[in-house]
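Re: that chain you flagged

S.,

Sorry for the slow reply, it's been a week of failed gels. I finally had a moment to sit down with the sequence you sent. For the record, here it is as I used it:
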Amino acid sequence: MKKLKFHLLGLLAVILGLNACYSDQKKLSEMEVYEGPLYESEDVRILFTDSTVVRVVITGAKQLQHQNGDIEFPDGIKIVFYDKNGQQTSELTAQSGYKENDSNLYRANGDVFVNNLQQKQTLRTEELFWDPEKEQIYTEKFVIVETEAEIIQAEGMTAPQDFSSYEFTNPRDATFTVKEEF
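Prediction finished late last night. Pasting the structure tokens below so you have them in one place:
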């Protein structure tokens, strides 16, 4: 009789064990697949160089690397551009940034500001793309360009990354001349 109780207890333990394994597998299959970032970095600084001369410096408070290779800067991005001699020419800042892995394009969003330090002209828009291969910035959004002499409004713009010149897609009739008062 003791052996029968022992075998029944053993059989009951096996049944409970199999049931536990089955319910764990069911729970795993019901779980959602994680699609968040692979890793997160803080106080990021990325350098682009050409023949040991720094050409571009990208900084961000936080960087997220996604599974598809895309990179996100959710807490702001700053991109500083340099000429062949290593002199700073312009800088771009925005509330957030995103780099698409497939196209190698950077997208700046939210209060985008570009400042050409040498020509003292600025650009404001809500979205701007930077193509590192073409060394070009562009947007299809509304832009305001301020120079020392005028303020220009337009829809869409293309410029070299140093913002030394620009071409508008659809300029508006409203161009304002800035008068200096002494």
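What I noticed first: The mean pLDDT is 86.

Talk soon,
D.
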